[in-house]
Amino acid sequence: MILWMTGIDYEKADIDTREIFSFQKHSAELAMEQLKETYGFSGVILLSTCNRTELYVSTDEAEGDLFQMFCELKKVPFKEYEPYKVERSGEEAVDHLFRLACGMKSKIFGEDQIISQIRTGLFQAREIQTVDSYLEKVFQTAIATAKKVKTEVHLTSVKTSVVEEMLTVLKREAGELGGKQALVIGNGEVGRLSAMGLLKEGMKVTMTLRNYKTRQIEIPEGCETIDYKDRYQGIGSYDLVVSATTSPHHTIKYEDSHALFEDGKEHILVDLAVPRDISSRYGTMENIRLYNIDTLGGGNQNRKDDELLSKALSIIKEQEEELALWQNFRVHIPTVQTMGQAAGMVTYQRIEKNLKKLVESSKQEEVKALVEQAAEKTITSMLFDLRKNLPMEYWQVCIEALAENIQ
Distances in Å between the alpha carbon of 235 and those of 238, 252, 393? Predict the structure, then answer.
């Protein structure tokens, strides 16, 4: 079993292209189920974030063009988007996922928001049963590696999310934020973080809520709220509007609201969503500054020093080696189980004559099954326990040698 991945990311594709390949929760679930059923992959996990959409599959052999399969799923021409594709398999794909989880592939080097996004992708695949034991292990190890790097190595001391990058840009471009008014559209994780960050800067913040949301919503202290459907009422009075939803449609449509901003006053619109929430046409208005995920920047890779980076890479390498050992061990599990079954049969054969003398005929089949099961469990347990006391390569030699004797 190998890991095979494909997708697009910010290094090759601009936000217009990334929008085309983005997925919302429901569409991602349908895509994973369809890919697994259509191509017979053992496991499928899809990651869709602001900066990348990546498809991970587990398969016996990477045959064909995974990106072409991806394009067919999205109903877009493969040849047109082939220049944007990234594709990796085997150890290269595993290494990419581990570095991605550690924030080393992010626009903001070392950011840790990606960990929760990878965890969400794994949980989603579990819910719809498109994850197999191999993908489960790989993703769990990637998440554990990222946590270890986060705890032991501070790859970046300041910028840990797109929200912090937004605040940095706003303070640099707009000056003092205190006392100004902001509207935050969206009460998900990014929306709440945005509201909290703006409140800390002294802004007066209002957040939208949707009536149909029945779950408990955590509203940052000091933040006012309005219904989402009333977002256009007074929108021109805000100095800053931030939109961070998972909606597939614009939350601020140009045709519905551009007249509300035609007051000669400077407004800042920040779009933290992919697909985008705010119409790009606002970027043509003279009194509006429009920022999105790409134009906010975030290319500052604050690699504190070579020693910290080296330590992080060392942790990643160590975890990758552990995963490889697990995979080698996993390959031999059927062999160990076969040896256990053979041991059970041989054990019974050696005591069969005596048992027939001691056990009444009606009970002999039941006793046979009990003896074989007990011997099988004992042998397999001993062989697996042996792995704990031997280097993997020695254990592997022992298993292969023992297996030859039962063939």
Answer: 6, 10, 66
CA distance 370 to 382: 18
pLDDT bucket at 387, cuts 50 / 70 / 90: confident
Q: Is 227 helix (H, G, I), strand (E, B) or coil?
A: strand
Q: How confident is the model at residue 156 (pLDDT cuts 50, 70, 90)?
A: low
Q: Which of 85, 5, 69, 81 is nearest to 35 (CA)?
A: 69
Full-model pTM:
0.66
Which of the residue ranges 26-40, 130-144, 166-180, 300-314 would you say has the lowest mean pLDDT? 300-314
- Is 231:284 a contact under the CB 8 Å cutoff? no
Residues 6+ positions from 308 with CB-CB distance below 8 Å: 153, 154, 155
Inter-residue contact 70 to 55 (CB < 8 Å): yes
Closest CA to 252 of 243, 264, 263: 243
Give phi and psi for 401, each to the nearest 5.
-65, -45
- Other CB atoms within 10 Å distance of the CB of residue 401: 9
Q: Is 249 exposed, middle or buried (0-12, 13-18, 19+ CB in 10 A)?
A: exposed
Q: Are 191 and 161 in contact (CB under 8 A)?
A: no
pLDDT digits (tens, 9 = 90+) for 48-103: 998 899 999 999 887 889 999 999 989 999 999 999 999 999 999 999 999 999 98
Give the per-residue pLDDT at 218.
75
The DSSP letter of residue 214 is -
Decide if 202 contacts 175 (C-beta within 8 A): no
Among 202, 193, 240, 246, smallest CA distance to 222 is for 202
Which distant-in-sequence residues (6+ apart) come within 8 Å of 92 by Cβ? none
How many Cα neighbours within 13 Å face the side chain of 286? 3
- Are 155 and 304 in contact, with CB atoms under 8 Å apart? yes
Tell me, yes or no, if 50 is annotated catalytic.
yes
